[in-house]
Amino acid sequence: MPRRLRLPQNWLAHVVLAIGVGIMAFPVYMALIGSTHDAATIGRGRLPLTPGPYMAQNYVQAWSFGTGERVSGTPVRIMMANSLAMAIAIAIGKIAVSILAAYAVVFFRFPLRMFFFWLIFITLMLPLEVRIIPSYKVASDLGLLNTFAGLTLPLMVSATGTLLFRQVFLTIPKELLDAAKIDGAGPMRCLWSIILPLGRPSIAALFVILFVYGWNQYLWPLLITTERNMDTVVIGIVKMLGTSESLMDWNLVMATTVMAMAVPISVVIVMQRWLVKGLVETEK
Amino acid sequence: MEARFPGHRLLPYILIFPSIAVIIVFLVVPFVQAVQQSFYRTSPFGTTTLFVGLDNYAQLFSTPEYVRSLLTSVGFAALVIVGGLAASLGIAVLVTRRIRGVGFYQVAFIWTYALSPAVAGIIWALLFDPAVGLGTYVLYRITGYRINMLVEGVPALLIAAAAAAWNMLGYNICFYIAGLQNVPREFEEAARVDGAGPWRTFWRITFPMLSPTTAFLLFVNMIYAFFQVFGLIDIMTQGGPGGATEILVYKLYRDGFIRLRVNFASAQSVVLFLMVAAMALFQLRVATRRAVYSR
């Protein structure tokens, strides 16, 4: 294509893309700005578009107290620790459980194999929200309310993980395993020394997806945890909103929101390459 | 493929046990209970339980609030899905053009994947807060109309849908970028040589080749717009004003946990499950057709 034709076209594309990025980023930018002013400035109804002088104060207040004039909450540091523990437990637990199941389905032949596989597959069709009432009842019957196990265990069911690892394991050349067997390696040794190293990129990808999934849980923690020191940060923000009718310490809410976003966003940006790959792989 | 480890009879069961145990305890048992509950009715104080057959379902579809909630859900999902997918496809087509900085744009869009619907809801609630929201103010300045999502139903639904679609943009764009990279250039070039303009080339060649991606995204976005937006709705509108944003999953939650009509809510669960199953089967059918396109 002639060069002088392509330049204006690309220029237009860049402008449209920049507008797109702006639309994506603006609400988040606004949250950032909101977290640097005092409640009175936001309350006057004209949120400035430039940062204000109260940034340090807002963040320190949210981080160590979580309570302002009109909202009362749990210190963000406690909620961040809860969120982090929950997200990591869900991600690691789900990955471990899925790897074992996929390993069994791909490399072993046993009665009921396909039945188990379909049982896992069906979980795709039963999102937590659909079975929320009886799931809550089961958790409550098992005495799991307000426990870390109750918060994380029910979220470790995952068809996507098992399906992804099944896909990956099927592409592993069987000669590799045969060679290891000749060298005297048992099935667990093969999993640990051959399969896991080969599946590392998928594990990284799934970790990002599941970490974000765990961190962002809303409905389940809302129901399962009623004690304040078990609040995750997403739930904490909601409780802040709930404590006031019309006037709100938007500055503290926004400071907490920014902190709640910062962790998963950093994880996604740092591991961006694996994430995109993982999303595409799980699609298959 | 034959078994790799024929000597180990018990091991596969041990390996698959954690998955199956969690699935049975937290998935199969609750679901069976929901189905069972949906055929019974319990008196308000839990003293007597009566088998009523399909009565809960009949009641469901004869209750105006439920029918309204169903229509609200469909409208909301249509707004989120059509608006969201059209915007992301447009942006993705631009990113996959041969322009500089594709990597930058990819990162600039994908990070929103990390935002939960709840957090998106909080930010948009501030943006369109009737008193202090910047969006409310700008809209008022441009149109002279003061939008109030706490009082008026239609604006509330539109703002919630916009927030929900915005929240999914990054995810959708990423998939369209990946999908577009798999469309062979030769077809588009052949069409161009035959004299087709870019618009025609896109709709006749590129878009049909993308149909597996579109089908997949339709499924994911439907699940999103029907279920995962729960947090967003709970924070922004709580189903209000006057039930204008009470989508099915929110009604299920209200009936089950706030109004404590468990049997009625269980029937709703089962109906929702049937909907997801139908969507999943549709997606599966389209996905198996993919082979035709990729070969």
Question: What is the element layout, followed by pairings?
Answer:
The complex is a heterodimer of chains A (284) and B (295).
Chain A (H helix, E strand, L loop, with lengths): L2 H32 L4 H5 L11 H10 L11 H32 L5 H10 L9 H10 L6 H5 L6 H12 L3 H9 L4 H12 L1 H16 L3 H6 L8 H10 L7 H21 L1 H12 L1
Chain B lengths: L10 H27 L2 E3 L6 E3 L3 H8 L1 H33 L5 H9 L6 H11 L6 H10 L9 H29 L3 H9 L4 H12 L1 H18 L1 H7 L11 H11 L3 H33 L1
Antiparallel strand pairs in B: 1-2
Which sheet architecture does the biggest sheet of chain A show? none
Average pLDDT reading of chain A: 81
| Fraction of residues in β-strands of chain B | under 5%
The total of helices of chain B stands at: 13
Main beta-sheet annotation of chain B? 2 strands, antiparallel
Class per helix and strand makeup of chain B: mainly alpha
How many distinct helices of chain A?
A: 15
Within CATH, the superfamily of the domain at 90-233 and 265-283 in chain A carries the name MetI-like
From the helix content, strand content and strand pairing of chain A, which structural class follows? mainly alpha
CATH topology of the domain at 90-233 and 265-283 in chain A: MetI-like fold
H-E order of chain B? HEEHHHHHHHHHHHH
| CATH architecture designation of the domain at 90-233 and 265-283 in chain A | Orthogonal Bundle
**Radius of gyration of chain B, whole Å:** 24 Å
What's the overall geometry of chain A? globular
State the total count of DSSP E strands of chain B. Answer: 2
Classify the oligomer.
heterodimer
Average pLDDT of chain B works out at 82
